[in-house]
Amino acid sequence: MRTPVIAGNWKLFKKRAEARELVNGLAPLVKDVQGVEIIVAPVFTVLAAVKGALDGSAIKLAGQDCFWEEEGAYTGEISPGMLVDAGCSHVIIGHSERRQYFGETDETVNRKIKAALKAGLTAIACIGESLVEREAGTTFDVLRAQLNGGLAGLSAGDLKDVIIAYEPVWAIGTGKTATDAQAQEAHAFIRGVVSELLGKPAAEAVRILYGGSVKPENIKGLMTQPDIDGALVGGASLKADSFAAIASFSM
């Protein structure tokens, strides 16, 4: 059995007071949710404030990115160990916005995943195709290449600390959502590639999340699919009631 994961990526939103208000509103709404791992990923500057607000809650904390070196002359970067020190248990790596705007590649994603695992973090590794790639019929080629590059050099044992997030780029922040069948098709393909790379037991155990305009209205349909193990939520995670409704999909 794979424990479902509902993770909220706050992106570039919420200063300290707003972040505390959101968490203080969210925690009581999800306190009775059982069998679901709930994670929030705020901006770096509010991690400490959010960690304090989460004390006594089962909600886990994630960074939105990290660097692949632990320390050194890398102005502006955040190391995996610094995230651990701030109270994080998880880190998002390779989000499509990082790839699109900041030059992330499969190679840098791979280096960051390895650094995160070394520091004791669980890596939420993002992959996904653009609209142009989907319309060109190359979705599976893109996903295979991202998996081959991102997971290069990892062992089956490493995969227990990796969560894969499938995010069709054309569905992020657009209001468009892949149909349940489209999402399941991609997730099943991803699990098949992981099986080829690291073996069937590892593939069957790894959790694969869907991301892309996830809302309370579509979460239940997505979660009925056999290979969808949760969601990486963007805009809907910025309000306590909508994120709580998504996290409570099983209730």
From TrEMBL:
Q: Where is the active site?
A: 95, 167
Q: EC? A: 5.3.1.1
Asked if the keyword Isomerase belongs to this entry, the reply reads: yes
Recorded hits in Pfam families, A to Z, give: TIM
Residues at which substrate binds: 9-11, 173, 213, 234-235
Report the SUPFAM superfamilies cross-referenced here: Triosephosphate isomerase (TIM)
Tell me a Gene Ontology molecular-function term this record carries: triose-phosphate isomerase activity
Sorted UniProt keywords: Cytoplasm, Gluconeogenesis, Glycolysis, Isomerase
Q: Which InterPro entries match?
A: Aldolase_TIM, TIM_sf, TrioseP_Isoase_bac/euk, Triosephosphate_isomerase, Triosephosphate_isomerase_AS
Q: Identify the metabolic or biological route this protein is part of.
A: Carbohydrate biosynthesis; gluconeogenesis; Carbohydrate degradation; glycolysis; D-glyceraldehyde 3-phosphate from glycerone phosphate: step 1/1
Alphabetical GO biological process terms: gluconeogenesis; glyceraldehyde-3-phosphate biosynthetic process; glycerol catabolic process; glycolytic process
The record ties this protein, via CDD domains, to: TIM (cd00311)
Q: Which domain of life is it from?
A: Bacteria
UniProt catalytic activity: D-glyceraldehyde 3-phosphate = dihydroxyacetone phosphate
The question of whether Chloroplast is a record keyword is answered with: no
The main place the protein resides is cytoplasm
The record, for PANTHER family, names: TRIOSEPHOSPHATE ISOMERASE
The record's note on quaternary structure and interaction partners says: Homodimer.
Job description of the protein: Involved in the gluconeogenesis. Catalyzes stereospecifically the conversion of dihydroxyacetone phosphate (DHAP) to D-glyceraldehyde-3-phosphate (G3P).
Specify the protein name. Answer: Triosephosphate isomerase
Q: Which organism is it from?
A: Geobacter soli
The organism's taxonomic lineage, starting at the top? Bacteria, Pseudomonadati, Thermodesulfobacteriota, Desulfuromonadia, Geobacterales
What gene is behind this protein? tpiA
